[in-house]
Amino acid sequence: MRGLFKRGSLKPRIYPPYFDQKSDFDKCLECEEKKCIEACEENILFIEDNKPIIKFNRGCTFCDECANACELDVLKIDNKKEKLNCEIIINPKKCVAWNQTICFSCADVCIDKAIDFYGMFNPIINEDKCTSCGFCVGVCPSDAMEIKII
Q: N or C: which end of the chain has fewer CB within 10 A?
């Protein structure tokens, strides 16, 4: 027997930080130009199921350009969030720094200075500072940065 939902329809997604409710993305079906994608300076916005989602090949600078470009008010500056709808977690088993190799890749690119070090070389994420921008995800040489959708 087949499931009620089409495969992949409930896939967790990271959305730009300018939406009010996830149901607002249903309006994106009406948008033909997808100007938010073109406006993204970091080229991390992609269309999936007619909705703009973030894929971390780089990170989000919270620059407001996707919201400025959205003509249907799905993305609005007034709804700007301080954090993306995800959490980034360092997996110590995969992290080369936690396994006796000096590495500062995640800390070097962190625009929020949210990577602290336990001991001398073991990175930990300072949850009070982290915006889940994703810059650390793309530069990690061992895929130790894991994403949890919230």
A: N
